[in-house]
């Protein structure tokens, strides 16, 4: 299965741009996981923890994000966060 | 003819001025590099936000119930000019250029019979604007304590602006800042920030926005949340560009000043040497004619 292209951007810099297995995003109406090939989707993000999975059961990193929104399109997942701090 | 001593004093003073301008140039060059990096780092976010806004804009129709930030207040009588200048001088024509651009727009608006108000970021534009448009300055943001512009600074300003907008203090806001092109060229730029100008641009069509995108919550809710953020981002970008432009402008100005000081030192040194030679010649003539008389 192809990897998911994931980008995490804050106003100050492009924090991450990498291929990952899955990302769990704290959406404003509930957490959601994004795998490769996800349908086009857009959601606002609440403050919370964003988990990056490098494999089905391995969490590569957890990042605390504050506000913003996430967009899934054919190119991958882009999270625009107001603030992001690596946990 | 100035005396030898006074020439010497002047040369020393110009030399120390040159040292200062040279140091300022070096500092500006170092700061410029950092400011430029910051400005470039902020670009991806702004680009993506714009793309998303454009694709949303093509979905939402502007109606009476749509957010004020998007639709406007329905009139355009009161214009707020947000003028971003620097906190320090000695940056060449940097501040003058921004203020001039703002004045041009202000005069045009006043000629149309509109009310113009000023909202200043940075203190360097204050003197001129207060003199030309007395009593029109509604607020001034003090940035002298900020070393590197952070997003939270822009966010505060944006919230203040949106609060004033919601309170009906103005109908349209324009932002003035210097766009950074290179260390030599900074272009004063005007940008409308409120209401948010939405152009359903080519980006939307190019990124395949026509595909069925699911929204959570719905489009309107996302847009309502995005609009204030867009204002903050525009301000943030302007502040970053301004910071880079300021340093670029200062570097150029200080480079020129250093070179001028060098020219001046050369001229003064020549004059000093001539005066010294003239004094020696006079002395010799005096001695020789004295010896001949004996």
From TrEMBL, chain A:
Domain annotation ATP synthase F1 complex delta/epsilon subunit N-terminal: ranges: 4-84
Membrane topology recorded in Swiss-Prot or TrEMBL: Peripheral membrane protein
Listed NCBIfam families: ATP_synt_epsi, PRK13449.1
UniProt source species: Rhizorhabdus histidinilytica
Broad class of the protein's primary localization: membrane
Pfam families the UniProt entry points to: ATP-synt_DE_N
Gene of this entry: atpC
GO molecular function ontology, one term from the record: proton-transporting ATP synthase activity, rotational mechanism
GO annotations of cellular component type: endomembrane system; plasma membrane; proton-transporting ATP synthase complex
UniProt xrefs under InterPro entries: ATP_synth_F1_dsu/esu, ATP_synth_F1_dsu/esu_N, ATPsynth_dsu/esu_N
CDD domains, A to Z: F1-ATPase_delta
Complexes and interactors: F-type ATPases have 2 components, CF(1) - the catalytic core - and CF(0) - the membrane proton channel. CF(1) has five subunits: alpha(3), beta(3), gamma(1), delta(1), epsilon(1). CF(0) has three main subunits: a, b and c.
Similarity-based family: Belongs to the ATPase epsilon chain family.
Function: Produces ATP from ADP in the presence of a proton gradient across the membrane.
UniProt keyword list: ATP synthesis, Cell membrane, CF(1), Hydrogen ion transport, Ion transport, Membrane, Transport
HAMAP family linked: ATP_synth_epsil_bac
Protein name: ATP synthase epsilon chain
Subcellular location: Cell membrane; Endomembrane system
From TrEMBL, chain B:
GO biological process: proton motive force-driven plasma membrane ATP synthesis
One CC-aspect GO term: plasma membrane
Keywords: ATP synthesis, Cell inner membrane, Cell membrane, CF(1), Hydrogen ion transport, Ion transport, Membrane, Transport
Organism (species): Rhizorhabdus histidinilytica
Compartments in which it is found: Cell membrane; Membrane; Thylakoid
Topology within the bilayer: Peripheral membrane protein
Job description of the protein: Produces ATP from ADP in the presence of a proton gradient across the membrane. The gamma chain is believed to be important in regulating ATPase activity and the flow of protons through the CF(0) complex.
Pfam family, one: ATP-synt
Gene3D superfamilies membership: 3.40.1380.10, ATP synthase, gamma subunit, helix hairpin domain
Transcription regulation as UniProt keyword: no
GO molecular function (one): proton-transporting ATP synthase activity, rotational mechanism
UniProt-recorded name of the protein: ATP synthase gamma chain
Family: Belongs to the ATPase gamma chain family.
Assembly and interaction partners: F-type ATPases have 2 components, CF(1) - the catalytic core - and CF(0) - the membrane proton channel. CF(1) has five subunits: alpha(3), beta(3), gamma(1), delta(1), epsilon(1). CF(0) has three main subunits: a, b and c.
Record's keyword annotation contains Metal-binding: no
